[in-house]
Amino acid sequence: MAISAADVKQLREMTGVGMMDCKKALTENNGDIDAAVDWLRTRGLAKAAKKAGRVAAEGLVGVASDGARAAVVEVNSETDFVARNEDFQNLVSTIATLSLDADGNVEKLGGLDFPGTGRTVSEELVEAIGKIGENMTLRRTAAISVSDGVVGSYVHSAAAEGLGRIGVLVGLESTGDKAALSALGKQLAMHVAAASPSPLAITPDELDADFVAKEREVFKEQAIESGKPAEIAEKMVEGRMRKLYEEVCLLSQTFVIDGETKIADAIKAAEKDVGAPIKLTAFERFAIGEGIEKEESDFAAEVAATAGAS
Questions:
Q1: What is the mean predicted confidence (pLDDT) over 223-244?
Q2: Which distant-in-sequence residues (6+ apart) come within 8 Å of 255 by Cβ?
Q3: What does the alpha-carbon distance between residue 201 and residue 186 come to, in Å, rounded to a whole number?
Q4: Helix, strand or coil, per DSSP, at residue 214
Q5: What angle do helix axes 33-42 and 19-28 make, rounded to 10 degrees?
């Protein structure tokens, strides 16, 4: 029988399950909405939907590389405990490998076939929510490729091979020795993981225009409030902007490996071992849960509430 869009919408609102799963549930149950709800529940899908509103800010960052291309993905869970779960680790590892073919598009990644299941990545994630019992989200992915060179990678606080709390990719173009280039790529990726502040762009020209304008305005207000003459205030602003660029642009940062060399100079020095010019083309840094507003819990209040209820 034909399944109406209205019925699919109603079932989705009742369960929170995705439209394709709702349509399938209705098809399997001849359009009976109550039976479709039970069908979803028996497969853990409705159960997963109930957990979907809970904040997932833990989890794992996964990195996968294939020489001249690499990808990074963030899959969130509610607790760090799940990040130590072998099933969850295998899930994220497989998703990271699949992300090599997603071109940095998280929607595309979610729609790719998950090996050996007959389900998509998004559907497999819902399946895992039902099994493991926590909300999980496929939050983001990014990819870097080079025409001739390597994409270096590094994972910090590793829970397993290619999985950890911070994942970094660094693209290096060069016709030189790939082994030496890979060693440099890993060191640069380690720098990006550890640098404080974290780099926002390779050069000042690549910084977000809104960010630059906002910072310039702040420096301008500070200079005006200092009471300096206009021409002096303008010089103060330009000086502070130059310092900002040095702090947040990767090529201008001080290499954490030796604590004294600028990244641009370290790359130039490495050209001797590589045997050819090197160009840093791109970088990506994912830290688990960054930017997610986490729920703050008052443990004492929870204990008191529990005691009062007993």
A1: 89
A2: 191, 261, 262, 263, 266
A3: 18
A4: helix
A5: 110
pLDDT given at position 309: 47
Q: Say how far apart CA 283 and CA 243 lie, in whole Å.
A: 21
Neighbours of 233 (CB within 10 A): 19
pLDDT of residue 45: 65
| pLDDT in the model for residue 142 | 98
- On the question of a cis peptide bond just before residue 197, with omega within 30 degrees of 0, the verdict is yes
Superfamily name with CATH number, domain 5-50: Ubiquitin-associated (UBA) domain (1.10.8.10)
Which residues partner with 62 through β-bridges? Answer: 73, 163
Instruction: Tell me the pTM.
Output: 0.77
Locate the DSSP E strands across 51-189: 58-65, 69-77, 113-114, 119-120, 136-145, 149-156, 163-164, 166-173
Q: Scan for tokens 């960052």, then name that residue.
A: 61
Question: Cβ of 208: how many Cβ atoms within 10 Å?
Answer: 10
Average pLDDT over residues 256-260: 93
Pick the CATH number of 58-203+249-287 from 3.30.479.20, 3.50.50.60, 3.40.190.10, 3.20.20.80: 3.30.479.20
3-state DSSP call for residue 16? Answer: coil
Whole-angstrom Cα distance, residue 112 to residue 100?
11
Name residue 256's amino acid. V
Rounded to the nearest integer, the mean pLDDT of the chain is 88
| Closest to 159 measured CA to CA, from 81, 98, 106 | 81
Closest CA to 108 of 69, 143, 61, 133: 143
The single-letter DSSP state of residue 4 is P
Comparing 174 with 33, which gets the higher pLDDT? 174
Determine the pLDDT at residue 286. 97
pLDDT tens by residue, 81-119: 888 999 999 999 999 999 999 999 999 999 999 999 999
